[in-house]
Design a protein that fits this description.
The chain has about 350 residues and is an alpha/beta fold. It contains 9 helices and 16 strands. It has helices at about 5-15, 20-30, 50-65, 85-90, 95-110, 130-155, 205, 230-240, 260-275; strands at about 5, 45-50, 70, 160, 165-170, 170-175, 180-190, 195, 225, 245-250, 275-280, 285-290, 295-300, 305-310, 315, 320.
Length: about 350
């Protein structure tokens, strides 16, 4: 059977040893299949996923003498959003989020500037242009996409923009539009990351968005309901409020589950002081589209009482699922099992 690795596993091997190139060759040799001259594999290592983990591992393996390719493809979100090379962080995560957050901080600074001696003409009348911010953010992302592509080329790593799944333990079937082709390798690195989850309620897929979509919206989200009070939901709620949107956060149980609750309490109180409303102990039940593109959201509280309200946008931030389901790991001889946090 071919060897399957995660990015952290392959770096664990490299970092512990004095001669990583030699050990990397040993890893290649663990594949278990004897390739003949007629069946020479295309690659020593085929990386499935072009995000931070796969990108770093591919470059390192190439520097140590392996023939490497990165297979990367973004399946559009239910809303149709796609993006380029670089994974979640570059395209719909860390980078655009920090840019949006910086824009929100600049807005606050403008309103505070008078207190520090800056004479601005009525800062309370200053309005934010969402389209201009979106364009600036997307242009920056595209520049990072390009730099990432160039770095792979400089490291002699082949980039293949195709959707891959296992055909057998040594073969990946890659698909581009209507065409498909096979790629073979001695070893595979799975670095496919994850995508946001949607609740199983009527209207969620049809009318809701996630962090995959928020950074590329053509117009301001307006009055927004963020469903989920983890760090992604709170980050989005924070910068949207800073950009002038009316924001509510729906909390199923507690804010920032898994984090220090004393700090979580301070964060939620600070957000409330900034005008963000928290709907606590509530669960969404359905979303309906109204005339004029408004959305009617119905939810129940902890007393079982049903409530509803109109919003312009509903953003789901209820967790993420790993994209391993689409890989066909059973054809590679691997079994999937449930964990405490099922995907």
């Amino acid at each position: 059977m071919a060897c399957l690795f995660s990015p952290s596993a392959i770096f664990h091997y490299m970092n512990k040893l004095k001669h990583p190139a030699t050990i990397l060759q040993n890893i290649w040799n663990q594949g278990g299949r004897s390739f003949t001259a007629q069946s020479t594999p295309h690659y020593d290592l085929l990386v499935i996923g072009g995000g931070s983990g796969g990108f770093a591992a591919a470059k390192e393996a190439s520097e140590l003498g392996a023939k490497v390719a990165v297979l990367d493809y973004v399946t559009p979100s239910p809303r149709g959003t796609k993006w380029g090379l670089g994974g979640t962080c570059v395209n719909v995560g860390c980078i655009p989020k920090k840019l949006m957050h910086q824009a929100a901080l600049l807005g606050e600074a403008i309103h505070d500037a008078r207190s520090y001696g800056f004479q601005l003409p009525q800062p309370e009348h200053i309005r934010h242009n969402w389209h201009s911010l979106r364009e600036a953010v997307q242009n920056h992302i595209k520049s990072v996409n390009w730099v990432t592509r160039v770095e792979l080329r400089e490291k002699r790593v082949e980039y293949i923009n195709a959707l891959g799944s296992f055909k057998d333990p040594y073969t990946i079937q890659a698909k581009i539009k209507e065409k498909s082709f096979n790629l073979t390798a001695k070893n595979f690195l799975i670095a496919v990351g994850g995508r946001p989850r949607y609740p199983r309620i009527p209207g969620a897929l049809e009318y809701g968005i996630t962090s995959d979509d928020i950074f590329s919206l053509e117009s301001s989200p307006g009055k927004t309901l963020v469903v989920g009070a983890g760090y992604i939901g709170l980050e989005c709620a924070g910068f949207l409020r800073g950009l002038g949107c009316n924001v509510s956060v729906m909390v199923r149980s507690i804010v920032l589950r898994g984090f220090d609750q004393q700090m979580a309490k301070l964060i939620s109180e600070s957000m409330e002081e900034r005008g963000i409303r928290f709907l606590r102990k509530c669960l969404p039940r359905r979303i309906e589209k109204l005339p004029g593109n408004s959305l009617l959201i119905t939810w129940t509280n902890d007393n079982g009482q049903e409530c509803c309200e109109q919003f312009d946008t509903v953003l789901f931030a209820i967790g993420r699922r790993a994209l391993t389901r689409e890989l066909g790991l059973d054809k590679a001889g691997w079994e999937m099992c449930s964990t405490r946090s099922p995907s």
